[in-house]
Each structure stands twice: as structure tokens, then as C-alpha cells.
Amino acid sequence: MRRPVARNLTVLAVSAAVVVSVGAAAPPSAPSGTGGGKTPLAVGYGGAVSSVDPDASAAGIEVLRKGGNAVDAAVATAAALGVTEPYSAGVGGGGYFVYYDAKSRTVRTIDGRETAPLSADKNLFVENGKPLAFADAVSSGLSVGTPGTPATWQTALDQWGSKRLAGVLKPAERLARDGFTVDETFRSQTASNEARFRYFPDTAELFLPGGRLPVVGSTFKNPDLARTYAELGREGVDALYHGRLGRDVVDTVNKPPVDPGSGWNARPGDLTAKDLARYRTKVQAPTKTSYRGLGVYSMAPSSSGGTTVGEALNILERTDLSQASKARYLHRFIEASRIAFADRGRWVGDPAFEDVPTKELLSQEFADARECLIKDDAVLTSPVPPGDPRHPQRCGSGGTAAPTTYEGDSTTHLTVADKWGNVVAYTLTIEQTGGSGITVPGRGFILNNELTDFSFAPANPAVHDPNLPGPGKRPRSSISPTIVLDRHHRPVVALGSPGGATIITTVLQTLTGFVDRGLPLVDAIAAPRASQRNAAQTEVEPGLDSDVRKQLEAIGHSFKVNPEIGAATGVQRLPGGKWLAAAETVRRGGGSAMVVRPVR
């Protein structure tokens, strides 16, 4: 039996607000590098920003205070994350932008995914007849796709913003010039990349000052990036796609500036000025799924986020998760994820190259045909074969399961709302932590390794793989920025997360925790996570209840511990024009939620 919308949306909003004692806001005139500390929860008026970093959230709040809208603030926050989270995002990467327009009550999206060079083919990562080892491919020019982030910023501002690019880049430019305070997360991420950063002299000079790891509490400055932002503000994004900045990127990809004494074989890429000049973002309709009477909107392919989260929600629609025990809730969540990933692997790729059955993957008919595979007293054996969404058969599976390709677990997500009711959920990335490891000389940013999200070779040569490389093709992503609307097309909640392929399960678990289990948004974000991606074992965080784990193991589940899964942020609309911003309490050192005018 279908359940009505989770109790009552007003009750949900009020229950979330009750847990708030103090709202966080950036200081009225927050100087660079002093974003006001990390506070994972804030409630107030005038708009809200939530990100992993206080300086980045403060940049967005600054733009909102100066009359900017959610789009302007999102770009400002993203640019600031390029300073303070340079191993997760920046000018050298790409991402996906989801926007809710309060005036028309509609959702639109921007696909700003990186693209393969026009010279690429299915053998991009094949050498001497064999697929390259992943580690050999990552820190090379081969892994670098045409950056999409600057084009995404400009597209968003042109379509829905109210400020010019130069203006919204100013807080980030100032932050890069004046510096920010190094925290333990930044130091540890640098340490985990230290060996390969030393392959590239420009990367080592910037991120290993004086040849050493940055010291916690010290000030980290990036004057090269400040100048890059100033150039983008002055010349527009043509500086990258048609200008000197672009020429510097091409030279770096094709002749990676490697330390000859390192012995590292930094394989050259084949990026050209034509690749940059031909790059285009795609403004497109979102995916839409109905769940408990709510409209769930997210990214359509080239990302698999919207279809996979949506299919899993449709599978769960038949189960009353609000009344289920914790063990049954997690069992159903895990099995729905397993099935949805099976179908993702078979059917989702870049729709410019592949016939992706997006509508059929999101149909309730297909979900119902797949849901019947789930048993309450047994566990499906992975890898589960895919179903056929165009010809759904009850409990039907067929073909060969495709393994989930590795996607870097870095990336970063931000969520913004403004006083007019517009909302942005934006996930941006350079793929894995530290990207390719290659810094563009004199430019202050690392290039992505996004092309390693392609399959290096078909899992089964007899079965078509929709995620093989191709000329100008976008690699499949799991990025899932999501906006949820009520039946009147007003926002309820917006959220997203980094985490590679675990993004999908993080968004799914956070949504069901909030909508079905009645958790306040900050608690839904903080809850211990599980991630099943059609594998033999389900990854779980250490905090998952041991008694629940034992109950699940008793029916056949197998687990392995992942210390940290994702780093979500979100905003929630409350009654009376208020917004709640929520972020991580612990993961990545905790996130930063801020509002323009906080209330107690």
C-alpha cells in the first residue's frame, strides 16, 4: 500500500527547527580566511549556504547580503571552494548544477561534465593491448578531460543569475590572495598525495611549501589562483576556452611538467585548442521521480545520479519505511541500491553517444518488476544481472552484470537558497582527491582526472558497455544534486554529497532518513552510512549499530568498514520564509552551514 507524504511536511519542518538553538552566520564583514568557524546547523532569514568549508560558505553569504540570488551565491561559493578545497574542485574540473526557480516553480539543470578529447576512442586507456593500471592512468595527461567548471559558472549566471562573473569571483580572489587557515583535513589530504605531488614540480612548489607538508594553523596563500580568477573576471571564460589560459592548459596536458628525477612516466594527453573551443555545457531538464507524494528532481545522464536514486526510490515506494524496524529499513535500502546499480551499469552513459532509456529506468512499472526480487529473509547475490527497462518482466533479470567503475571519492557539494525562494544544489569535482596531481604552471589549480571514470575496457566483450571512451564523450558520473518539491511545487529540501559512486547511496539514505524516518535534516546527514553498489559486500561506516549489523548478517549480508562515506550538505525550507542549512557534524572535519540573518 502506498503511504501518504511523510506524515506532514509542516511537521517535518517544525521538528527540524526544534533542534536548533543557535543559527550560524558569517561575520558581517568576514575577512578572508575567517569564515566564522564550522557550524553544521543554521536557521534564519535572507537565504542560506551550506558547504564543507566556512570560508566558502561565507563567500556565498557575502554575495547574498549584497543582493545576489542563489545562483550568484552558488558560483561564489564554488569559486571559494576552488581555493580551500583545491584537491576536490576548481577551474580544472567539472560538475552538475541543479536550479529551482521560485517564480516559475520549475527545476532546470546544467551538465558541466568534462569531455574526452576529440581524438579519444575506446582504447584511450589501452597500452600494448592491455588496459592501463589505474594508478598509471590517474597521474597523467591521458586522464584529463576538457574542464567544464568555468563554463558552468557562466552558463548559470547567464541563465538565472543577477551578477556578473567578475563580481561573484571577488571573494574567492581575495581568499586566494590573502590566504586561509590550514586545518587537519587539508594537511591529511596533502599528505595522502605527497608522493605523487612530488612528481610535478609546480604542484610540489604550491602545495608542499618549502618542500614540506603545510602546517595546521598556518596561512595558505595561492597568488597564482588569485590572478587566474582576476583574469577570468576581466576576460570572461573565453580566457580558458579561447585564450591564454586555455593554451596553458593544453600545453600542460600534452607535455606534463614532470620532475625527470622522479622516474614517473606521466603519459601525455592529446587535448587541443579545438577541444576547448568546442566545449559546451548542456542546459537540460532534470530527472523526476514521485516519492511519497513529493517530486524528487536530479541530474539526467551523463550523470547516473538521477536515474539510479530515482529507480531505488521507486523500488522503495512499496515499503512503509516509517514503520519498519531499523534492520528491515536498512535491508530494503541496501537491496534497492544493489538492484539500481545493476541497471545503471548496463544502461547509463553519455546520451549523445548512447541510447539511454532514462524514462523507462524511472518508470514505476520497471521498479515494481525489480522490487519483487527483494526478500525479507534473504539477500540477493551480487553481481545482480540487469533488468530490461524497455520490456519489464516481473522479477526479470538478464544479461551480464557490469562492475561499478571506480570514481574518486573526493568532489565537493554546496547547497544555496535565497530570500526569493530560489534554490541551487551543485556538485563539482576534479574526480579523486588531488585530481591528476598536475598543476598548470603559474595558474594555481590542479587538472582533473575525470576520464578515468570511463571503463578502461568492456567488462564482457560480448555485452555493450555504455561507458567506454569516445571523441568528445562525457564519462558517466554518480553525481546526484537533488531538489525535492511538494505537491504545490515549492521546495521541501535540497541536498547532495561527494563520494564517487557512494554519492548515490548517500543521497538515497539521507532522503529516506529525512522523508521516511522523520530525522531532522542535520541528523539524516550525520547518520552512519551504508553503501551497496552491486558488490559482494556492503560498505558501512564504523558507527552503524552493531546489533543491527548482526541481524542483517544473519540473513546473509556481508559488510566491510569504510571509515567515511560522503560529506553531504543541504537546505530545508521552513515556515514563514525561514531556511535551515545543514552540513556534516564530523565527516571531513565537519561542514559549514550559514544563513544571512540567524534566529535563535
Question: What is this structure's SSE topology?
Answer:
Blueprint: H1 9-18, E1 41-51, H2 54-65, H3 70-84, E2 94-101, E3 106-112, E4 126-127, E5 130-131, H4 134-138, H5 149-160, H6 165-178, E6 180-181, H7 184-197, H8 201-207, E7 219-220, H9 223-235, H10 238-241, H11 244-254, H12 273-278, E8 282-284, E9 287-291, E10 294-298, H13 305-316, H14 326-347, H15 358-361, H16 364-371, E11 412-418, E12 423-429, E13 482-485, E14 491-496, H17 502-515, H18 521-526, E15 530-531, E16 538-540, H19 546-554, E17 559-561, E18 569-573, E19 579-583, E20 592-598
Parallel strand pairs: 16-17
Antiparallel strand pairs: 1-11, 1-19, 1-20, 2-3, 2-12, 3-8, 4-5, 6-7, 9-10, 10-13, 11-12, 13-14, 14-18, 15-16, 18-19
Helix pairs in contact: 2-3, 2-6, 3-6, 6-9, 13-14, 13-16, 13-17, 14-19
Description:
The protein is α+β, with helices and mostly antiparallel strands and 600 residues long. The protein has a single domain (9-27, 38-283, 405-598), classed as Gamma-glutamyltranspeptidase, small (S) subunit (Glutamine Phosphoribosylpyrophosphate, subunit 1, domain 1, 4-Layer Sandwich), CATH 3.60.20. 33% of the residues lie in helices and 16% in strands. It has helices spanning 9-18, 54-65, 70-84, 134-138, 149-160, 165-178, 184-197, 201-207, 223-235, 238-241, 244-254, 273-278, 305-316, 326-347, 358-361, 364-371, 502-515, 521-526, 546-554; strands at residues 41-51, 94-101, 106-112, 126-127, 130-131, 180-181, 219-220, 282-284, 287-291, 294-298, 412-418, 423-429, 482-485, 491-496, 530-531, 538-540, 559-561, 569-573, 579-583, 592-598. The strands form 4 sheets. Strands 1, 2, 3, 8, 9, 10, 11, 12, 13, 14, 18, 19 and 20 form a 13-stranded antiparallel sheet that branches. A 3-stranded mixed sheet has the order 15-16-17. A two-stranded antiparallel ribbon has the order 4-5. A hairpin with a 4-residue loop joins β2 (94-101) and β3 (106-112). The model is unreliable at 1-22 and 27-35 (pLDDT under 50). Residues 380-408 are annotated as: Disordered. Keywords: Acyltransferase, Glutathione biosynthesis, Hydrolase, Signal, Transferase, Zymogen. Its EC number is 2.3.2.2, 3.4.19.13. Belongs to the gamma-glutamyltransferase family.
